[in-house]
């Protein structure tokens, strides 16, 4: 089976500084992969390379077997890559339902999207996503009135409803309460198998709740890769990142 996301010797050089240095990684269909590493390890830059925000100087990015290296961000998005940043981006003046309708439609204009009637299958999918992100009761509420956690879940729902095959999540629990973090873990765990997810996160308790396989970056390179038990007992990972506490 073709990997959903394949990185082959991916690297980027910023005036002699190799922020990402020959990273190779295969993320399988429906897998949830967590990226760990200290600040400056290359995690966000790697996400930038995958999504097209930054152009690689070496190596390849393949999505569902298709080489998307060097393509612009919108073309990589059309190839099935969705990305969620730490700061959510939603239409604050539209309702939760309208935000999802805009994300679901293929039309370029926001207002033409809202005038376009959804079919039965589209309505059913929208209801399914509302249930998955736990915002059924907030469907008719303006997005600008949502809590921080709810806004994050709405943006995640907007990626889901676009049917992105590979979803990149950059610190999805940043700024959340303990309860919101727990619910985010629940939502992400329900996406396993439906979407392929690559998650950058620093909250180690959250990582333990969601992680299947972890890739640890250090100085732009892959330091270790494996399950939670393997990573938290890896001597080089402990020295470079986790310390004595492990993934607590």
Class by alpha and beta content = alpha/beta
CATH superfamily membership of the largest domain: P-loop containing nucleotide triphosphate hydrolases
CATH architectural group of the largest domain: 3-Layer(aba) Sandwich
Q: What is the total number of structural domains?
A: 2
Please identify the top-level CATH class of the largest domain: Alpha Beta
So what's the overall shape?
globular
H/E series, N to C?
EEEHEEHEHHHHEHEHEEHH
Q: Could you report the average pLDDT, rounded to the nearest whole number?
A: 89
- Cα separation of the termini: 34 Å
Largest β sheet strand count, sense and barrel closure:
6 strands, mixed
Estimated radius of gyration: 18 Å
Structure write-up:
Helices cover 37% and strands 24% of the residues. By secondary structure, the chain is of the alpha/beta class.
Key terms:
single chain, 248 residues, alpha/beta, Rossmann fold, 2 domains, 10 strands
Outline of this structure?
The chain is α/β, with parallel strands linked by helices.
Walk me through the topology.
Blueprint lengths: L4 E10 L2 E11 L4 E5 L6 H9 L6 E6 L2 E2 L5 H6 L2 E4 L11 H9 L5 H6 L4 H14 L14 H14 L4 E5 L7 H14 L4 E5 L3 H7 L2 E6 L2 E6 L1 H5 L2 H8 L6
Parallel strand pairs: 3-8, 3-9, 6-7, 7-8
Antiparallel strand pairs: 1-2, 1-4, 4-5, 9-10
Helix pairs in contact: 3-6, 5-6
């Amino acid at each position: 089976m073709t990997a959903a996301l394949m990185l082959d010797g991916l690297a980027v050089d910023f005036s002699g500084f190799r922020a990402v240095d020959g990273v190779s990684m295969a993320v399988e269909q429906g897998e949830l992969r967590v990226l760990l590493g200290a600040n400056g390890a290359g995690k966000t830059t790697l996400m930038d390379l995958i999504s097209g925000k930054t152009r690689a100087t070496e190596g390849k990015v393949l999505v569902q077997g298709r080489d998307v290296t060097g393509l612009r961000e919108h073309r990589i998005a059309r190839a099935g890559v969705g990305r969620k940043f730490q700061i959510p981006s939603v239409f604050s003046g539209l309702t939760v339902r309208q935000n999802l309708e805009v994300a679901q439609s293929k039309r370029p204009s926001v207002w033409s999207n809202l005038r376009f009637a959804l079919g039965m299958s589209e309505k059913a999918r929208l209801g399914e996503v509302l249930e998955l992100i736990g915002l059924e009761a907030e469907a008719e509420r303006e997005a600008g009135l949502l809590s921080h956690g709810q806004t994050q879940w709405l943006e995640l729902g907007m990626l889901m409803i676009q049917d992105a095959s590979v979803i990149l999540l950059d610190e999805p629990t940043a700024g959340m309460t303990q309860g919101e973090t727990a619910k985010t873990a629940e939502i992400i765990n329900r996406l396993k198998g439906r979407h392929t997810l690559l998650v950058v996160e620093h909250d180690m308790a959250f990582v333990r709740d969601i992680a299947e396989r972890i890739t640890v970056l250090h100085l732009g390179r892959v330091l270790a890769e494996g399950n939670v038990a393997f990573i938290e007992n890896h001597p080089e990972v402990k020295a470079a990142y986790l310390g004595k506490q492990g993934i607590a």
